[in-house]
Amino acid sequence: MDNAVVTLDVLHSGVIWGWYVTMNLWAKSIATGVILLAPWILRRHTNPRLRLLIPLIAFIFLNITLLFTVLDLHQPLRFWHMFVYPHFTSVINLGAWLLTAFNGLLVVHLLLAWKGQDTQYRQLMPLTWIVAFFATIYTAGLLGQANARELWHAATEVPQMLLAATLAGSAVFLLMRAGGEQASTWLSTVLGVSAGVSLTIYIAEVVLAPQKSEEAEYLIHVLLSGDLKTLFVGGLCLGFAVPLLMAWAGARRPQPGLMMLAGLLSLAGLWLVKHAWLIAPQLIPLS
Amino acid sequence: MRLGFMVDLDLCMGCKACEVACKSENDVPLNAWRLRVKYVDVGTYPEVKRTFTPMRCNQCDNAPCETVCPVGALHPLDNGIVNIDKDRCIGCAACMMACPYGALYMDPETNTADKCTFCAHRVEGGLEPACVVACPTEANIFGDLDDPNSKISAYIRAHPDSRVRKPEKGTKPKHLYTGGGAVHLEPLASKREEGMNLFNRIGTLDKIGGGH
Fold first, then answer.
1. Would you tell me which CATH number, out of the four given (3.30.565.10, 3.80.30.20, 3.30.930.10, 3.30.70.20), belongs to the domain B3-189?
2. What's the ipTM?
3. Which of A88, A186, B12, B152 could form a disulfide with B143 if both were Cys (CB 3.0 to 4.6 A apart)?
4. Which tens digit of pLDDT belongs to each residue from B38-48?
5. Which residues of chain A make contact with B111, given a CB cutoff of 8 A?
């Protein structure tokens, strides 16, 4: 209503879940992404160094995820309440158990790789892969429980989380030049497909689909032409569209330098897009 | 027993006595509110009127804050009130993401989430919530929704336009409103113009909103 103006209210609480949570989402995509792609990379490349590096990278980024999760708490020293007062209707709580299990499995993988116990390493990988899969998608459930934030309720959140993981995982492997030339072509394809499908879903969801509520319409405006357009549209171009084109070239003829750049851009763009997606629904008044 | 609230928007005159009573009763710190009265000016000069909407926690039957809380700090009481255990809260703010009414806040002194509890401590002792007692026009009606003889049940029967905020969210609020119009209850039905509010220079504390 154009002629209705709020003249007295409490200050809007602003962005509560800020870049710490974005770091959580971004780092978790890398941690789970490298594990989701690990069986295929290891099949192409049997270098024992890679057997150690894969769980090490996942472990480092998973703990970056956990660090930012704890730092984002207003009572970080009470983090242990998650485990002694578990509330299992909360996806956050389920996620805490899942990430802890994932961390434990990664430590076991590191030990097995360190000791050169390849058979046990291979036997454990399916379980780690399954845990990584659920660690990737549980965040979609978490966002779905945020009843106040309609933007996060899209049915495509689960595939977007998986695509973010495969995008980030392939980007990291390309930056490491893991698996040699043959793997590089395959990784370029994974990166390109992840970027392309994810970009298509974003466009379909944000640009093409009719919005069902005034709130959703407003949020789309914020993302495409409002305060977050630089972050969101810039992130989509930088992290998805440009790497897609680079991957197209890289998949046809191995170009390690170009694909390293594509990996770097993907990781940067992924952060920007996730951040915009996270803060957009927090910008509107709820009451 | 399902304790609920009804606000008669035609009776509220925006005196904010309820806000003050709530602040005082519950020691609500500066820059935080369990209950607030929103002013919206409607119309074009000289045909202008000011509307007043008291807002507090809706004590939903299907409370998303309770579901999402990872440590069970938010929990339902037998009388339908959604209470909070501040000693258990870890301050993850998931409840603030989940509540579609913006009813929760992060207490800047304890760094834990907090909200209106319909003055559960007073109710336990047989008293009405502080805001109900303070209201000079009896715009706040409090009572047991399950009891057909309660004042609130009678008020709901007498006011068929009784409604809740955002029914589409499926939260089943126990806080109803009667009277007023769309601008009272729908946040996007009114504009928020920067620099046009009565209090413009209120800032957020570091840890709340924009701190990180």
1. 3.30.70.20
2. 0.91
3. B152
4. 999 999 989 99
5. 74-75
